[in-house]
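Predict structure. Input: Apolipoprotein N-acyltransferase, 121 residues.
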Amino acid sequence: MAGLLMRRAGAADAGILLVGANTWEGIKEMHARNAVFRAVENGSALFRQVSRGRANAVDHQGRVLATTDYFTSEQQAMVAYVPRECVATVYSRIGDTFAWLCAAGLAGLASLVLRRRSGVH
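Output follows.
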C-alpha cells in the first residue's frame, strides 16, 4: 500500500513527501533508509517524523538535511529547511513498467528454453 501511495505522489510531481512512522530500535536505520530511497526514486524531498525511531529530512538526492534519533537523543524536535521543487525521474514517469517488461521477457525466454528442451519447435 505504501509503495502505491509513493508512486502516486511521484506521478503527481509531489515536491515533499511527509511521512509519519513508528519503528522499534532494531529496524530504525533500515526504515529510515527505505524512506529516503523512495523519495529519491520519485525526485521528491522527504520529511519523515517518527514517534519512535529515526526521524530524517532529505532533499531529492538523498542528502541529509536533518536527523534525530528517538532512542539516543534527548531533543525530539527536528527543524529542517526542505526544498519544495520536484525533480522528474524515470521511475516517477514510467513506474514499474520496466520491471514488468523484464519479468515478461524472462518468462518468454524460459518458455523458449523449455520448448527447445522438449523438442517442440
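The beta strands are 16-22, 45-52, 54-58, 64-69.
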